UniProtKB/TrEMBL annotation:
Belongs to the polysaccharide synthase family. It comes from the Bacteria. InterPro entries: NAD(P)-bd_dom_sf (IPR036291), Polysac_CapD-like (IPR003869), Polysaccharide_Synthase-Rel (IPR051203). It holds the Pfam family CoA_binding_3. Residues 1-29, 626-651 are annotated as: Disordered. It comes from Actinoplanes italicus. This is FlaA1/EpsC-like NDP-sugar epimerase. The lineage of its organism: Bacteria, Bacillati, Actinomycetota, Actinomycetes, Micromonosporales.
Length: 651
């Protein structure tokens, strides 16, 4: 291929965009670019130390210049420069470890001065007392003031150059004056192109009445929002409290709604996952924020113990729960993350969300149907997973009421085959995703998921690993959720349909639910179902009213009546299940009567609908005990690589 090269006299300004070019000049090595700046810092600090020695010596002699031994002062200043620079390099002061003028660098400056001062006292004694000892001690303190002052001045000048103009950005009042607000304001004020300019803070803590963040003052509490917005001509209010509950966000939303300002929010802690808040994270308040937001604690050490460096497989990886599982599991550095789904578009979307590629060229993306036993064996043989999260299932209650055979084939037989395959391939830990419909079930969906909980309990009793089920309620933002349906109805011009004025449901954001599912997988359990605390139930009619009020046009709310097998209020625990939380405050652990998979032979997908539902109901509620273990689930041989896993990394 012919490449047009630039003539020796050409300049980049003369070049035509789009021309092919040969390699340009070699880039300047990093050390040649970095060393001048670091050397300048060292020289500046050395000059500050020399100046400090002079000032301290003059103070010691009451300003009498004739008493100063200038030659000795010059010699000691040179020695001090060498000692201070060497100590600074040791403590990282001149190695580019920290940003200029940050707290960590000032701490390193203090450590450097703490080493330099006694070293100079010793060297001054050896050199014949060039300056008074009190001057050396005083010089150490003066040096700190001068060097820190220089850094503060430079940092302030840099910040002022980066600070956006209040006339160009959106003037915002920030609700909260904690760490989240500090991160938000710093992010806003350190880019000239920031779309937001903070003008005031609000916080309910009386101790913060005189608090300022980068010269942005606290001007009152939430009750002063209207007055502060008017006084500062604010155009938006940002709720900068990552740990804010849904109840707090609803209250702040009600306060801001009459003020004709945009209301925005920073993501909850669970979405930030330990990183700092960025300007790009600021977004409008969503229905998920208003309904299901709360802080969820997680034992990172316990979770990493069973995920880091392990091979993990997720079924139903293209769905709402499965895809979020994959995104959060990837953060724990598994040795392999295998994503299985029969929906190739779902796999494409989840790969794109994790690594931004979406090339579908990774063997860890597996197109397979959990109904296909032979295919499952192929997948487990190839990938040899240590941990399995089973999220693949059919979940829409009305459809499964009409077609119970599909619930049998996917939810029950598919799960049984996953359990069987996992035990044959010696999976160490399996988490079966269940639903609150399995608590005191009265629908086909509830029957099928309760049966899978019982099958999982039977597998746990037989397998050498830990097999458990995790049960939770409605997940906000999932495909087919009530918010998705209401949004579509508003888009179509209404009406919003609600089954009953008093119907209530539990809600949790998908991020919070998955975070607790991962935590639940780390708990020790004996054939139990782990039930996630979903908070307080919410009236669906209230949700519909809030969405209708936020619409640009009048939206009617119509009540259609409860559907067959639908409950007025969901429960998370069955009548015989205690709310026992021995390991985590948000996770209950309830025993499950096991059910031997051999009884599935009683089920025939081709049976009449009413007969099939009756058998499912009986299996869900029966006191059946596990029979003699089926040969297919008693294989106990360990793979060599599994047996080699250290005891601390196994269940």
């Amino acid at each position: 291929m012919q490449v047009r090269r630039r003539a020796s006299g050409d300049t980049s300004a003369d070049a035509t965009p789009g021309d092919w070019r040969g390699p340009g000049p070699h880039p300047v090595p990093w050390h040649r670019r970095a060393l001048p700046g670091r050397a300048a810092r060292a020289v500046t600090d050395a000059a500050a130390l020399a100046t400090a020695l002079l000032i301290a010596t003059l103070l010691r002699h009451d300003g009498d210049v004739a008493e100063v031994h200038f030659l000795g002062l010059v010699v000691l200043s040179a020695v001090a420069a060498v000692v201070h620079t060497a100590a600074g390099i040791h403590f990282g002061l001149y190695t580019g470890r920290w940003a200029y003028g940050c707290f960590e660098e000032i701490a390193a400056l203090v450590r450097t001065a703490a080493v330099t001062t006694p070293a100079l006292l010793l060297l001054d004694t050896l050199l014949g007392r060039l300056v008074p000892r009190s001057a050396i001690i005083g010089a150490g303190l003066i040096t700190l003031v001068l060097a820190a002052g220089m850094r503060y001045t430079v940092r302030s000048m840099q910040d002022s150059r980066l600070r956006p103009s209040p006339e160009q950005g959106t003037r915002v009042v920030v609700m909260g004056a904690g760490e989240g607000a500090t991160q938000v304001i710093r992010a806003m004020l350190r880019s000239p192109r920031s779309p937001y300019v903070p003008v005031a803070l609000l916080d309910d803590d009386p101790a913060k009445r005189t608090f300022r963040v980068m010269d942005v003052p606290v001007c009152g509490t939430r009750d002063d929002m209207a007055e502060v917005v008017r006084k500062f001509r604010a155009e938006a209010v940002v709720i900068a409290i990552p740990s804010a509950s849904a109840d707090l966000i609803r209250k702040l939303t009600d306060l801001a709604q009459p003020l004709n300002v945009d209301l925005k929010v920073v993501p909850p802690v669970v979405e930030l996952f330990g990183r700092t808040v960025r300007v790009e994270d600021i977004r409008p308040v969503s229905h998920e924020d208003l309904l299901g937001r709360r802080e969820v604690g997680i034992d990172l050490a316990a979770v990493a113990g069973y995920l880091e460096g392990r091979r993990v497989l997720v079924t139903g990886a293209g769905g709402s729960i499965g895809s979020e599982l994959c995104r959060q599991l990837a953060r724990f550095n598994p040795a392999k993350l295998v994503m299985l789904d029969r929906d190739e578009s779902g796999l494409h979307a989840v790969q794109l969300s994790i690594d931004g590629r979406g090339q579908l060229d990774d063997r860890n993306l597996v197109v397979a149907d959990i109904r296909d036993q032979q295919r499952l064996d192929e997948v487990f043989t190839e990938h040899k997973p240590h941990v399995v999260f089973h999220a693949a299932a059919l979940k829409h209650l009305p459809l499964l009421e009409m077609h119970p055979s599909e619930a049998l084939k996917t939810n029950i037989i598919g799960t049984y085959q996953i359990l069987q395959t996992a035990m044959r391939h010696n999976v160490d830990r399996l988490v079966n995703i269940s639903t609150d419909k399995a608590a005191d079930p009265c629908s086909v969906l509830g029957y099928s998921k309760r049966i899978t909980e019982r099958l999982t309990a039977a597998a746990d009793a037989t397998a050498s690993g830990t097999y458990c089920s995790v049960r939770f309620g409605n997940v906000l933002g999932s495909r087919g959720s009530v918010l998705t349906a209401f949004a579509a109805q508003v888009e179509a011009g209404g009406p919003i349909t609600v089954t009953h004025p008093d119907v209530t449901r539990y809600f949790m954001t998908v991020q919070e639910a998955v975070r607790l599912v991962i935590q639940a997988g780390a708990l020790e359990s004996k054939g139990e179902v782990l039930i996630l605390d979903m908070g307080e139930p919410v009236r669906i009619a209230d949700v519909a009213k809030r969405i209708a009020d936020a619409a640009d046009q009048h939206i009617q709310i119509v009540y259609t009546g409860l559907r067959p097998a639908e409950k007025l209020a969901e429960v998370l625990l069955g009548p015989d299940e205690p709310d026992h939380r021995p390991n985590h405050p948000l996770i209950s652990q309830a025993p499950v009567p096991p059910l031997d998979g051999a009884v599935l032979s009683l089920l025939d997908p081709s049976s009449p609908r009413e007969d099939l539902i009756a058998v499912l109901h009986w299996l869900a509620d029966s006191p059946a005990l596990p029979k003699k273990p089926h040969p297919v689930i008693t294989t106990k041989q360990r793979r060599p690589e599994t047996a080699a896993v250290p005891p601390g990394r196994r269940s």
